[in-house]
Amino acid sequence: MLEKNNIQSYKNIKVQKKLLYKGGDKLSYKAYVGTYTGNGSEGVYTFSYDNKKYIKSKNYLQKVSNPKYLCFVENYIAAVVDFDTGSGVIVYDEEANIVDTLVYEDGTSCYICYEDEYIYTVNYHEGTLSVLRFKDSKLSFVKKIKK
Q1: Is the pTM of this model over 0.85?
Q2: Contact 29/21 with Cβ under 8 angstroms?
């Protein structure tokens, strides 16, 4: 189960991490990183590292186009991404099994967050805030607010 215990942002990379185990002085974390795709990057990656910030492993998690921002949604991970038919949100579990997807805009949003059963995305290029609902493991579009 994912835990919403530590979230850090660095420029355009969203890192979400959880405590994997604690034994004596040793702590281990797992971080989820979304990237711009191209130039060797293919989507979402996971990193394991210890309390001294040494990366112990890097794993490819999910091949998606431009998952530039991630967030935890209940026990899942959500990302704003590009699809062949447009842009939107993908939700998947920790093992990269797709739970649901929703295409609802022409260009990718650059921010995503979750509270209660609602996912909020922001598209700075369009000047919009989109509201989605995630209930019973299903995404649905609620509304788009334009500045």
Answers
A1: no
A2: no
